[in-house]
Design goal:
Elements: H1 6-27, H2 35-47, E1 50-51, H3 52-58, H4 63-75, E2 79-83, E3 91-95, H5 97-117, H6 123-142
Antiparallel strand pairs: 1-3, 2-3
Helix pairs in contact: 1-5, 2-5, 3-4
């Protein structure tokens, strides 16, 4: 197998993803949040209130799993479901004040951990890598 083959690209990407994912999970380990709950709160913090199905799609969760996760966060008082003013049949998920406070604190710690993780690359290399990954992702979605 060539070091430039598609399989080698996949293996390198998979191993890197696993290592970075472990760091990401470790950065939130003591917060009381699982990674799925963190992702939902992070998405709502950065994208604003979203329909339930959009939250599920952005976190790669099935409809049932998204509902379970949102229920869990709602029980903890971190999110709430409200009626969509444009479509009264739809439900919107939004952060509560407690949810906003928690995710701001947790995300700050996570961002520091991810910055430390990326120190092996200088700013130019980071920019190039991001461009290459976007290009690869775009190519993969076309297939």
């Amino acid at each position: 197998m060539s070091k430039t083959s598609g399989v080698h690209v996949w293996l390198a990407l998979m191993k890197t993803h696993q290592a970075v994912q472990k760091r990401a999970e470790k950065s939130i380990a003591d917060t009381g949040l699982c990674f799925t709950d963190f992702r939902i709160l992070e998405i709502l913090e950065h994208k604003g209130s979203l329909p339930v199905n959009t939250v599920g799609a952005r976190t790669n969760l099935t409809s049932g799993s998204a509902t379970t996760a949102i229920d869990r966060l709602q029980t903890r008082g971190l999110v709430e479901r409200v009626t969509d003013p444009q479509d009264r049949r739809a439900r919107i998920v939004r952060l509560t004040d407690a949810g906003t406070k928690l995710i701001e604190k947790v995300f700050a710690k996570h961002a520091k951990a991810m910055e430390k993780t990326a120190t092996g690359l200088n700013l130019r290399e980071r920019s190039e890598l991001i461009g290459f990954l976007k290009k690869l992702g775009s190519s993969a979605r076309k297939e």
